[in-house]
Amino acid sequence: MESIFSIKTRDVSGTRARTGTVELPHGAVATPVFMPVGTNATVKAVSKESLDELGFEIILANTYHLFLRPGHELIRQAGGLHGFTGWKRNFLTDSGGFQVFSLSKLRKITDEGVSFRSHHDGSKRFLSPEDAVDVQTALASDVFMQLDICAPWGADEKEAADAVRLTKAWAKRSKERWLATRGEFRGKLFGIVQGNFYKDLRVRSAEDIMELDLPGIAIGGLSVGEPFEVFAEFLAHTAALLPEGKPRYVMGIGTPEYILEAVANGIDMFDCVFPTRVARNGLLFTADGPIQIKNARFERDFLPPDPGCSCRVCRDHSRAYLRHLFKQDEILWSMLASYHNLAFLHDLVKKIRYTIEDGSFDSFRRAFLARYAARNA
User: Fold this and answer.
1) What CATH superfamily is the domain 5-272?
2) pTM exceeds 0.85 for this model
């Protein structure tokens, strides 16, 4: 299979961290990379101009939601996600598997695919592995994911094994559909490793996905409610199973602690709705730990949200003003807070890349986490 990933630097400070480049249809992506989530083909409260200004090279959209509304055929007619949205860089699309997992009361899983009811209007829908590929092809995604089964935290071994079996079968069917229908379409299909919290199942699933030799590999089924220590243990176990020469993607992580743990284990890509979702609800990232802007102590605090941050929100606005916007339920609050949180994570990942390259990543990681956790100590 074609190679889309090159390793630039390996960490020499005692971790498995690395920097590299993923070559995609709408430009190269420097790794490690955090990808903002635009579920409905928009990152909530953040314009594409702001994302471009911040320097993001890839964002996410969600197959499940776009399949339901406005429908992938409409987006195909608009020229795919790039024509529909005007975003000129890369899109990665989730297959919809995690959303189906989240709607457990509304779906039924068989070997053929997933039957479910739309959370919008209750209408019956069906999504097969082939359908997921077809929808993402219509979206013209630069990276798209196989349909998989994500067993929940607390699943027994039989449920987890069934998820691994179906994920393997669906990965094979996804690859066959992708190869048969892509034509001039240049989007890259990634497989997903499952296995829940059973190490032997993680080994089996990793072997299953590696056999298919897809352009990239994602680690699924983590950050689904388990304690951080369990996440770290199974992340390390799974990442060590994966080949060096392919991009590694952990799905659904977006806080500094989780990002730094992922990078230390050789992960190249990660995403999450968390930074923008919590921003809308009053939480701002700072180097000294997150702050809740609604707290009364910020009412007359005329410092910027994070004195060490150079983003335009921190240059131009005080905590007092931002608290006022939040308390008055002003739309501008969501826009400024979301911009800042994304700027904070983007800057963090840039620093991570720099410290990997100069050999100081592990000391940077330890110092960052000690300061970040101090507020809550």
Assistant:
1) Queuine tRNA-ribosyltransferase-like (3.20.20.105)
2) yes
